[in-house]
Design goal:
Number of helices: 8
CATH architecture: 3-Layer(aba) Sandwich
Radius of gyration: 18 Å
Oligomer: single chain
Shape: globular
Order of helices and strands: HHEHEHEHEHEHH
Strand order of the largest sheet: 2-1-3-4-5
Distance between the termini: 45 Å
CATH topology: Rossmann fold
Helix content: 40-55%
Structural class: alpha/beta
Number of strands: 5
Amino acid sequence: MGVLTDRYFKAIDDLLEKLKIDQNENIMKAAEIIASSVMNEGIIQTFGSGHSYGTALEISGRTGGLIPTKLLREPSTGMYERIEGVGEIFAKECDFREEDCIIIISNSGRNPISIEIAKVAKEKGLKIIVLTSYEVSKNIKSRHSSGKKLFDYADVILDNMGVYGDSALEVEGIPVKVGATSSIAGAMLLNSAVLESMDLMLKQGFTPPVFMSANIDGGLEYNDKLLCKYKDRLNRL
């Protein structure tokens, strides 16, 4: 293993240990929101702009994850995330219902698109789980004229505990830090919340609707039976 890789593994190991301890309560609160939505026939909506799109995708439509999860695909894929009005227009076209919950991911939480989507979702009665770097977001200026940050709309904040600039390592000869942490931390936090939501559902006698791998014999047929219940909503914007 190279020196930088070794340092990176160490930084990620340390971060995951911090998340395990410090974010446990928030993970459980997020799990309660997710479980409640699924048991009340709602769906989990996920949104991330720019690179946060990958984190939103992490728990949407994947093996071992909850079937009633929909990734919101904003057409510009983040090109206009700093322009006010784009998020509000997009959100008003989305099929938001009060039995749903929404997970919005933004490391900085400062850009108008995620703030406006959160505002519209809140107005429509959805519970909001925000995944962000809380200390970073608190200490930078909002790019929205309201002065609001994404976390201002959260019912639960999942803090990825990242540093300013989302990089862990200083390397001699490179003027900026390298080694991003938000994607790995975000994946762990979201998958943990989903797993705990499944446990909560089971404790209440409700079988969580979970995707089986399509590469396992019978997987496609198993998934199709469960998808029938949600197909209409998952295929809408």
